[in-house]
């Protein structure tokens, strides 16, 4: 069984983005039902983001509410959160000041209801050496406030640079029948060499495969 930060996870994870980052998000009741169903089916690796919504309402707020109602599920879930962008915006900022702001706010919103197993900057800040950004995040791991560090949307060179500063627990990149770049650009081979699990997002082609299957089902009726 796959492991993240020493904890067993299912082969399929659960992304929380659509529960808070859309024009008309589902109700809390609908979100809770989806989250509980995912967990019951073995999808205990959950991925959310400080950017998935607004500073006032994003994945962290929903998670706080969920684990307040279902505290027994907290230890069953391995939680990864994306952050590291300018507050309220989409510009990467890997400076010490912003990384600490991002992690501190994530922890504040979770309010101890759930530990932060993994934290990853949503994108690499080209203005800040990735080695520096990882060192800032590693301070929280050493303090016991964070389980580990993951990376999002990075190249092979960045993975090596980051891993040399602190062990990287996971790399999240797009991978599907329509997105196979990691097999040619060195990301997959680098992760295999360093023993870093790859978390593939949009494995169904951003809904493309689902839409085909749905259409086929409707036409067959």
Automatic annotation (TrEMBL):
Xref: InterPro entries: Aldo-Keto_reductase (IPR050791), NAD(P)_OxRdtase_dom_sf (IPR036812), NADP_OxRdtase_dom (IPR023210)
Residue ranges annotated for the NADP-dependent oxidoreductase domain, each copy included: 12-210
Domain of life: Eukaryota
Keywords of the record: Oxidoreductase
Pfam families assigned: Aldo_ket_red
Molecular function per GO: oxidoreductase activity
Gene Ontology CC entries for this record: cytoplasm
PANTHER family: AFLATOXIN B1 ALDEHYDE REDUCTASE, PYRIDOXAL REDUCTASE-RELATED
Protein name: Aldo/keto reductase
Species: Clathrospora elynae
